[in-house]
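Supplementary Methods S3. Input chains for the assembly prediction are listed below.
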Amino acid sequence: MDTFDTRHQVEQLQIDYAYCIDSGHFEDWPEFFTDECVYQIISRDSYEQGHESGFYYCRSKNMLRDRVLALRETTIYEPQRYRHIIGGTRILESDEKRCRAESNLIVVRTLQAGEMGIFAAGAYLDTITFESGTPKFIEKVVVTDSPQIDMLLAGPL
Amino acid sequence: MDQKPSTIETGWPEEGLTRVPYGVFDSEEIFEREQERLFRGPTWNYLGLECEIPKPGDYKLNFIGTTPIIVCRNHVGDVRAFVNRCAHRGSLLCFKNRGNEKVFTCVYHNWSYDLDGNLRGIAFRRGVNGQGGMPEDFDEEKHGLEAVRVTTRGGVVFGTFSDGTPDLEKYLGPQMTGFIDRMFNRPLRVMGHYSHRLRNNWKLVMENVRDPYHASILHLFFGSFGLSRHTMEGAALLDDSAWHHIVYTKRATDDISGSEYEGGKLKSMKSNLSLADPTLLDEWQEFDDGITNMVQTVFPAVTFQQITNCLGVRHLVPKGPDEAEMIWTLFGYEDDEDWQREIRRTQANLVGPAGLISLEDGAVTNFVQRGIRGREGNEASVVELGGDAIESSENRVTEATVRGFWKGYRDVMGL
Ligand code: FES
Ligand SMILES: [Fe+2]
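Predicted structure tokens for the full assembly:
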């Protein structure tokens, strides 16, 4: 696979991923991952210090499903929306089976009364497999530049 | 913000501690008095963990109330703390969150201080070519950093501005001290560190943390997956002063039949839910006493928690009448094995601003801040669960622990 094709596939995956979250289709979110996977949200400072614990840590697709179950059934918060802007993807390594990529990320959060602001800025550190035909994340580490979350972080980034 | 007559003018409601006047949550005047009487007063304030500054010269920054603080380890290995304010013209002395220095040198005009806070160097002290410089009789000894009195227990560092604060052990009493020793019983290892910005007064967070009433009601995840219910064995404890509290539960000790949890009477009980990956809740018995959830506060503003194996410190920093920051430090022990670390890491999903059993707290404390706007006169909240008792009980359907906070608050604030 040439790099142009890899880049195209990765970017398309990011676009679909962002659409899934921003449109609130959380049930589809785990489907962007392989059964065995890691999804983490952690601050840049903690990531660089080698800390294990951040805001989210799921180590299987089923744990992602459980996050969605919690969002739907047990989590209480005011209606809000995310809007992801993903760009600047760099392919760090790739072969036919998988690749590692890093992308920039900005998420704007809009609260129901209209207040909006940059909720998160950071990077996706992704490992993606192409083996099943559809690209999927084996690992997705969301590294947030700020160590701070404003009020609450409900849906995934 | 709309300024209402503050509680300083109107006084505390005559019912006493079963009422909390909303005026304490949004007044500038009260906020300023808190800085002076509470945070600079006879209280021990959390500064950090010794494992964060293991070597001489290591330092980290923190706050006592709004005052910026440097916590460091001096040349002989003792923990020291100072106000992070240059004695010359007030610049922050350190501006990186942590680091290691042999001397602290202010970037503004290069005044420098040793690790005990003594002024050691003044740039151009003697001027240039005999011109300028500091007066001959300028006494450097009088211009060190403002020191904070420090104490440590089990590797936890506390500081106080007041000489009148009793020793930590006396401040806490034997039971509360015993719970600190229980959790901080061997060398720690930090596993995570983050901050949570709260759009509400800091005391709403302390009420929330000390309130066992809401835990299994608001946090549906808690009740639904049986992590904590009022029907389990547990206790709500206060020390003799009632300033500090502990609420704990022992999981797997309850029978919900006949209680409001049964048959979905409480909205908080969704017993039909099950996890696709139950390893999310994997745990091991960490302490011999069988306690699986424990939340302890040390007045005024720090919380130590054990949520099964997720151990952590939540340090609350007031930022203004309607804004606060909760700084989280999650930890395990140096001798943890990999599987234990992995369990702690997984359980960290339960806590923090994205926590499955805590996410709602950031929402509700803000709801109160918004709810109390536009009030008439001296309205107050009702804190009457368990009557007006301010004492320990095995029953956690009580707000005694919340009233204890307000007792400490009134003692110190003169309200
Ligand atoms: S303000 Fe620090 S040296 Fe002048
Ligand atoms: Fe809570």
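The longest helix of chain B spans residues 168-183. Chain B has a mean pLDDT of 93.
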